[in-house]
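A protein record pairs a chain with a discrete description of its three-dimensional fold. The following entry can be read in just this way:
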Amino acid sequence: MEITIEKLQYSDARKLFEFECENREYFEGMVPSRGDEFYHFETFIERLGSLINEQALGLSSFHLIKNNHDLILGRINIVDIDQLQNLGHIGYRVGKDHTGKGIAQKALKLLTEGIRNEGVKQLFAKTTSNNIASQKVLEKNGFKQISTSEEEIKMRGQILKFVHYKRLI
């Protein structure tokens, strides 16, 4: 499947909101909930505006993963960009109907290739200890596991830890 990654913009608001609502239960099985307020369109638009402003300041870079029919398949981001230390933190999510198709792996490859000329030299990522698929995506894109947190979190009755990764660009 051919995919593209495109910078987040207001024109994607309705489609992105629908994507997030459709995948809420699936995502909340892997990461902590964003809370009920996130799923009210007015709140979503406010948060979207904050993300776009953050992106304009160079503090983060938010992208949508799309297919050739302009359907949103997922999101991939670099957040907490530190321009002095040339580093950022990766996050991504692919909708339930699109998992297991190599989309996250392709999107991460596109993102890391695209930032080579933007000054980011180190990327960090973390995933939960039970998210083996995400760990494989990171490792196939050159990320190396650097640690596992001592801190435990409880999510859906499971005790989990965060697994931390790093990649030099």
